[in-house]
Amino acid sequence: MEKPIVIALDGPAASGKGTLARLIADQYALAYLDTGVLYRGVAWLLLEDGNDPNDAALAAKAAKNFDIEKIENADIRTRKVGAAASVVAANADVRAALLEFQRRFANEPKPGLKGAVLDGRDIGTVVCPDATVKFFVTASADVRARRRWLELSPSRPTLEEATVYKDLVERDARDAARDDAPMTRADDAELLDTTHLSIDAAFAAARRVIDGVTRRCS
Ligand code: CDP
To answer: How wide is the angle at C-alpha 207 spanned by C-alphas 201 and 213, nearest 5°?
Structure first.
């Protein structure tokens, strides 16, 4: 069997990874996993039970028993869940419990698909260090806050852009500073700064890189 294609996209909050990952998955017939959902899911389950995401033992237990179906209809995109996700994500036992699922997703493509795209913070460095192509997707904090605010404000009309900015900066700092699997650009990751790029332009840039690499490999 041919080796699956694995595309890794890492980067800070609201940098455009998810949008790009979906477009790449469609274009190249790949499955897509938003790995942030796993951390947000564990955080949501803890908050739902009235538990503190800083409680390391409880967070580890929630991650070990994690089942994606349990959060199917959960509202995991809130500010509160985002912040709690980055707290549980700094817990090494939580990360270890979620690793196997991510690796299996990457390496065992569903029938009819050629591989997978995963987006997160540590895909190119820890989850899939041998990924076919790696990107580190970034953008200025101002632009990322504006994008996330535009995304959230229709359902939360009182939300202020400055609040979103503060949340993102705090979360990025925690994600980059943790000891286990910190958010960082892998040495062999292509840097994609989307500050001044439209979605189409960012997708075109990503395609050029992917086509170049997959041509060389085939
Ligand atoms: O969508 P957004 O960029 O806001 O974040 P997300 O991808 O949903 O991730 C939420 C949080 O989960 C991040 O702030 C990280 O703390 C954590 N995370 C992680 O540590 N490792 C990953 N591979 C994915 C997410």
So the answer is: 145
Instruction: Give the residue, by CA position, lying nearest to ligand 1 atom 23.
Output: 120
Give the whole-angstrom CA distance, residue 216 versus residue 210. 10
Beta bridge partners of 135: 9, 190
Q: How far apart are CA 69 and CA 97, in angstroms?
A: 16
CB within 8 Å of 89: residues ≥ 6 apart: 39, 95, 121, 175, 178
Q: Span 5-217: which CATH code?
A: 3.40.50.300
Q: What is the mean pLDDT of residues 18-26?
A: 97
Break the chain down into helix, strand, coil percent, rounded to 5.
55, 10, 35
Please give the number of the atom of ligand 1 that sits closest to the Cα of 34.
7
Comparing CA positions, the residue from 32, 99, 94 lying closest to residue 59 is 94
Q: What is the pLDDT of residue 1?
A: 60
Q: How far is the CA of 13 from the centre of ligand 1 (A)?
A: 7
Where are the domains positioned within the chain?
5-217
Mutate to test the pocket of ligand 1, among 19, 76, 86 (most ligand atoms within 8 A of CB): 86
Beta strands (DSSP E) in the chain are: 5-10, 31-34, 115-120, 133-138, 190-193
Which pLDDT does position 144 carry in this prediction?
98
